[in-house]
Amino acid sequence: MKHIAVFASGQGSNFRSIYQHVTETKLAAEFSLLVSDRKHPGAADFAYEQGIPFLYLNHKAFSSTEEYAERLIKELQKLQVDWIILAGYLKLIPADVVKAFRHRIMNIHPALLPSFGGPGMYGHHVHEAVIASGVKITGATVHIVDEEYDTGPIVIQQTAPVSFEDTPETIAQRVLKIEHEIYPQAVAWAIQDKIKVHGRRVEILT
Questions:
Q1: Which pTM was predicted?
Q2: What is the DSSP letter of 60?
Q3: What own/partner pairs with CB < 8 Å and gap ≥ 24 does 199-204 have?
Q4: Distance of CA 144 to the CA centre of its chain
Q5: Catalytic one of 3, 21, 109, 124
Q6: pLDDT digits (tens, 9 = 90+) for 55-99
Q7: Mind listing the domains of the chain with CATH numbers?
Q8: Nearest Cα to 103, choosing from 32, 65, 152?
Q9: Which secondary structure element, helix H or strand E, spans residue 183, and what is its range?
Q10: Is 109 a catalytic residue?
Q11: Which H or E run contains 4?
């Protein structure tokens, strides 16, 4: 049985799709905790409905990043968390937390990394940059989290076309559908111990 903690700042649509997939396919996993940097994220409503504990932790309430990271690690280890799944969590995960859960933190990004990633590249900002660049293909990327924004090893990607008529909103809708397909798949691989990281490359075991 794998214990999963989800981190979310917003509505948590990926959280919902992952939970639904894990539940319907009867994978050996338990959602042990939802963590947010906001007091009342939409994702918390879903967590309450499913009986998943909710923890509000804002780094501004701590005297240092190290103290904040120590509290996070303590809470996660208390629940014997195996994997941390970021589902629209907008804060950089502290380096000490990444170290404590090396290769066991996953995130999804609404573009084909390594393009259109990094600080400030989230949500509509990504899709605006995609349109401005003139590329004809975008998509979504699930990756392992390291100490920087959007630079960890890539687990899975899927593409989506970009047309001349597209707006950030239409691209967002198209990409979100992809996210709801590939993120649950990646989490299933994690639960089944199929993800192996070799430097910058990720092997999916069969």
A1: 0.96
A2: G
A3: 199/153, 200/153, 201/153, 202/144, 202/153, 202/154, 202/155, 204/155, 204/156
A4: 9
A5: 109
A6: 999 999 999 999 999 999 999 999 999 999 999 998 999 999 999
A7: 2-197 (3.40.50.170)
A8: 152
A9: helix 168-191
A10: yes
A11: strand 2-7
